[in-house]
Amino acid sequence: MRKTLRQFALIALSLAAPLALAGEIFEFGGHTYKIISKPATWEAAATAAAEMNLAGKPGYLARINSARENAAILNAVMEHLTEAQRAASLAEDGSETPFIWLGGSDKTREGQWVWSDNGDQFWEGDFNGKPVGGLYTNWGVQPDSATGDEDALAMGLGDWPEPFYDLGRAGEWNDLDGNTALAYVVEFSDVTDLRVAIEEPSVGAMHSGIGLVRGWAVSSNPIERVEVFVDGEYRFDIPYGGLRGDVGDVFKEIENADLSGYASAVNYSGLGKGDHTLLVRVTDAFGSVKERTVEFGVTRFEKGFISADDTVELGWTTQVYTLGENITILGATIGRGKYDITLQWRTSSQAFEIVDIKKR
Fold this sequence. Notes:
The chain is mainly beta. The chain has three domains: about 1-190, Mannose-Binding Protein A, subunit A (Mannose-Binding Protein A, Chain A, Roll), CATH 3.10.100.10; about 195-300, Sandwich (Immunoglobulin-like), CATH 2.60.40.650; about 305-360, no CATH class. Helix content is about 15%, strand content about 40%. It contains five helices and 26 strands. The protein has helices at about 1-15, 40-50, 65-80, 85, 245-250, and strands at about 25-30, 30-40, 55, 55-60, 60, 100-105, 110-115, 120-125, 130, 150-155, 175, 180-190, 195-200, 205, 210-220, 225-230, 235, 240, 260-265, 275-285, 290-300, 310-315, 320-325, 325-335, 335-345, 350-360. The strands form five sheets. Strands 1, 2, 5, 6, 7, 8, 9, 10, 11 and 12 form a ten-stranded mixed β-sheet that branches. The chain has a five-stranded mixed β-sheet with strand order 14-21-20-16-17, with no helix packed on it. Strands 22, 23, 24, 25 and 26 form a five-stranded antiparallel β-sheet that branches. The longest helix is centred in the first third of the chain and has 14 residues, at about 1-15. The model is unreliable at about 1-20 (pLDDT under 50).
């Protein structure tokens, strides 16, 4: 039965990429966790965790210090892993239950359970043993070394074993053979240092014509994607890596922070007159995602594009007003219409931009 279920899961995984139900990355208590759905042995999982890094700090198989942390990890894993992924992460001890690897083991000395991040001992003995140093534990009727060398710590994603379910419940711990391939959770002793800023469009400002979407993003991990959404709809990806010495001066601890700019031309007039919301979503190589939004307005002529054949005549305007950073032109002829046009100086673009258009 166990082999059949595992084979079914592997076939399902090979036919199509499973739909993730929740993010693989989550935060709790100032730490970050990454769920790895591809099964691996305990040693391979521990090695892979140590090769990952977040904000310059290496990862390690998750260490659990409280009931709240235990519940947070269980809930995140259950929401993220698909049924097929859980079926591909079964224990091989007859329990017929999916498990995930955590960072504990007693491989050095039987019954001496320690956390792999720093060697803290948290348990001594078998299921009749006791916690060490007041550290949190959440064993089922475990550890029991039921199949021999069960030296690696795992969390159950369901009750076990069939058919009585009297040795452990979902979220409780079990000792398993470390050669079993299971999904696992990597922990990092920090949160992401991914930072994002939008500089154009300006917050609450009016825009028109051909302008820019621009800003910067920095992270200790390489930036992989910068996406732009307008009014909730995906529009395009922005090229990334523009020279930004000013950003590099602020984030000197982050490599290549001086190459953190993003920018792309956009036809604001094509969005339609009125209020709009722009969202920039940035993803780095670790998988961290940060979003920033800005509310702005668009003003435009009746035509979304003034061509070379359209009349543009300012010489017959009736009056020009100036006030602070604004210039207002009354009675300008644009195409077949007459308009009052207000221009405003924009420091960010070092130019005047049309910020108000009223048809006469």
